[in-house]
Amino acid sequence: MTTVSTIEVEVGGQRLSGRAAEPDGTARAVVPVLHVLPEHDGIWSADECARQQASAALKRSEGAAGMVQRAAGHCVDADRAGYAHHLTPAAFFETCLAAHATRAESGRSS
Fold first, then answer.
1. Using one digit for the tens of pLDDT, what is the confidence trace for 11-67?
2. Which domain of life is it from (predicted)?
3. What's the mean pLDDT in 2-13?
């Protein structure tokens, strides 16, 4: 069974929405996505194959990024690398805002 979720955020006074579904809907995501795999996870693999699969699933999502959080275990937030992990999504979000503003200024739709 596939669960579909609607995601809504407000950026600079503009409401943005998207739909996400798992597992087969990932390829339909059209909002920026940051996919983080912990380096030392005992459940999810962070090997080259896993990174390629994540990249392929997010290929339609403009601005999507995938990364391996070094020195982190399964619960990245609570691990030694937790602080670094929290800075990464914040930086990703700021980059998305800058890209959106640049597109808006140049007259391109996002």
1. 556 665 655 444 555 556 578 889 999 999 988 889 999 888 888 888 878 888 989
2. Bacteria
3. 54
Per DSSP, the residues of the chain read: --EEEEEEEEETTEEEEEEEEESTTGGG--S--EEEEETT-SSS--SHHHHHHHHHHTTTSTT-EEEEETT--SSGGGSTTHHHHHHHHHHHHHHHHHHHHHHHHHT---
Are 42 and 73 in contact by the 8 Å Cβ rule? The answer is: yes
Q: What is the spatial distance between Cα 57 and Cα 11, in angstroms, rounded to a whole number?
A: 25
Q: Which residues pair with 10 in a beta bridge?
A: 15
**Rounded Cα–Cα distance for residues 78 and 69 (Å):** 13
